[in-house]
Amino acid sequence: MQLSVLLSLLPLAAAFPLHLPQAIRALLPRDLSSSQQDDLIDGTECKAITVIFARGTDSPGNMGESTGPPFVEAIGALVGTDNIAVQGVEYGATILTFLEGGDKKGAALMASLTEQAMTQCPSTKVVMAGYSQGGQLVHIAAASLSATVSAEVSSVVIFGDPDDGDAVGSIPSSKVLIICHKLDFICDGSFIVDSEHLNYAEDAGDAAAFVVAAAGL
């Protein structure tokens, strides 16, 4: 396809960013603020860091808005946006599955995506991350990973973790960052969502610094 033709498609591509051919996506400015990220399944070239992120209950896209995008934007600010790949986990994210302890199908998908990232890009540093119910998915997914795959996970970050205090599979605690605000009742095992559960964007910088340090970058 000629460059002139590709350029003519840019306005359309920007309006409909889901599952675009890689040749077109490569010409678009990198937008880590989007609530939909599909670098892994769209075949984006391997990056230094690959983040697999599970959003919270009833959040839009596969990344949500309040926590996932600020987190990956902060990583991009530290390592450069061309050095990070991001894949959101597509799952129902319903209140019912939250009350049941987390969406099991979503967790299975997260585990599969983690393994896929390592297979497609053996040198990438894989980060498992989630917010709220997404944190439940991280716990369940990590517990299902083999010892070999678990050892290759670079870091884990969970914001507003409903399972705060529980191990994250067999991943060493030194690779895990759990961020829970003091008055976030979800972290205490409650089902009450207050303002302290909704402002984890303010922790994006600290979380990003942890990820980059764990990756050795």
From TrEMBL:
InterPro entries assigned: AB_hydrolase_fold, Cutinase/axe, CUTINASE_2, Cutinase_monf
Stored Gene3D superfamilies: alpha/beta hydrolase (3.40.50.1820)
EC number(s) on file: 3.1.1.74
Localization in the cell: Secreted
Catalytic activity: cutin + H2O = cutin monomers
GO MF term list: cutinase activity
Cited Pfam families: Cutinase
Protein name: cutinase
Organism: Calycina marina
